[in-house]
């Protein structure tokens, strides 16, 4: 009887835990503001968008920019030549706690008008619940601005206090939505919570009710993988239409524009940085898009292959775009997000192939799901978003072919996926010889020849596409793309330490750890096991690095991250099974300690007043987390092993929480910690009187 009831009890308990979590989240959803975003069009004020904001403060301009650009009605108002001024109306209910009346202010560098119960809030507001209205006005782009990433600060925060000197931020739980405002996010929360409770409850029922421990472990691992995928989706979807900001990487627009045009009439079109190079080869037009300086658009467009563009173009059509300029990132970014989640699944499957037992697959997936470099870049509509799952999928089917009886269908699928890589991005052609080499390494030469024939046959579709559009223009542009950038002996070095989210230099601690852990895990494997990880990474770095030369952007490493995470997952599994000081120090001092950086104001950290405090905090952190590894290194006992594993679990939980914090707060951290890796290096420079690099010095460009 107990054996029959225990799965049911576990399932009901798990489902109840999910619903209790949703109930706690619902408390947050009960608070927020309604914002109506307006603009002047043909001498009349139009409503651009109406949103519910559960974060009641605006730390900078990014959310406002996203609301205007992603909510703009292109069909009715056309494509604006510049960013309209900020004109927002904020409505809410605010509850003043019992006690003294409080002064209420809307702190902003812009113009604000604050009304309480439809009256100007000149006097202290008495305790109780009141209607709040704020009118928020100001420029989002000054005249003549041409830089893509740094615009004007446009922030707003509600404050209150007994007098002007005691003003402090209004807590979010004091602000709630107006009674006549519906919140679709709150309804979605409960629908998702019920579905998740059913999923988790059912999965736990089957896992606990398994007839053997091995079956129970497999089912538990499948459940953990499914929950990890859901967590990854949540992190990637949060603020996906706001950050990265739409001007930060213009390549997203040419992918979307070209894809829309391809599906519309079969022609190609995209913006370019070097229009003068196309003289005699292409038609160049100048178009306006939320900026005063027009953008150069060329037809035909060959700077990138069409496969990924077709996917985001289809999303733009589904979103209702009637012209290529009408495509919104809010419609097209779900495509790279879906591809990023697919890549996470492939990371779990490939890692399970290479580490059939133990926690390595889930640890690899946990890294891919939460490392902010990967999470935020997974939102970006770039060709590498498709190249990553194609490359990882090719390796997965190769491993299936190698390890499961050399089935022909697995080899053909591996070859087809490798052949599709150059249709996503030309350097992806390298995954064809990588696959052929891996197959040949097994001694199956006929199979290697078959894989080469199939993969090259699929890759040849790019040449068919080029011939159908403009053969001569294709070769001219492809040659120009591969040779326009300067080369140097050290051009590969940045791939190993220069972490970037688009152009923002941030994430060095995460990237360096992934590389070290990957190399350590790969070298610990057998020759064949190491090749399956190392060859795709080395091959792609060479293929990407040679033509890119001195240019380096955050999306370049997207096809490498799955393999780095697989290796790093194995590294962490080894740390769990055999704790020791060196591995523990690499984990604690690189990704964990680095993630702590974003809990502090960088201006304070770089000031002399922080030295003593920071030294105490950092010292206590390092001692607390490294001491268990030192003890197990000194003497391996049951207690020391238990302490070391507890320390590893604590460090894992901490880094996942900190990574999630970074992703959720990236709207604000983009400004406060912009180019953080450069600023960190220059703390001592400032102390010596040397000027640190400005956060304004981000690089622009296209690849």
Question: Can you lay out the helices and strands and say which pair or pack?
Answer:
Elements: H1 2-29, E1 33-41, E2 44-53, H2 62-71, H3 74-77, E3 86-96, E4 103-107, E5 111-116, E6 119-120, E7 128-138, E8 157-161, E9 168-169, E10 175-176, H4 184-208, H5 213-237, H6 251-265, E11 270-271, E12 283-287, E13 295-299, H7 307-318, H8 329-332, H9 334-354, H10 360-370, H11 372-377, H12 384-403, H13 408-424, H14 431-441, H15 445-459, H16 461-469, H17 471-483, H18 494-497, H19 508-523, H20 527-548, H21 561-577, H22 581-596, H23 602-605, H24 611-634, H25 638-664, H26 666-672, H27 676-681, H28 683-687
Antiparallel strand pairs: 1-2, 1-3, 3-7, 3-10, 4-8, 5-6, 5-7, 8-9, 11-13, 12-13
Helix pairs in contact: 1-4, 4-5, 5-9, 5-10, 6-7, 9-10, 9-12, 9-21, 10-21, 12-13, 12-14, 13-15, 14-15, 14-20, 16-17, 19-20, 19-21, 19-22, 20-21, 22-24, 22-25, 24-25
In brief:
The chain is built from 28 helices and 13 strands.
Total strand count, please?
13
Q: Count of helices?
A: 28
Largest sheet features: 7 strands, antiparallel
Distance between the first and last residues' Cα: 65 Å
pLDDT average, as an integer?
85
- Low-confidence runs of at least 5 consecutive residues: 144-151, 684-703
Helical content, roughly?
Answer: 55-70%
Shape: globular
Q: Strand content of the residues, in percent?
A: 5-15%
What is the SS-derived class? Answer: alpha+beta
Radius of gyration: 27 Å
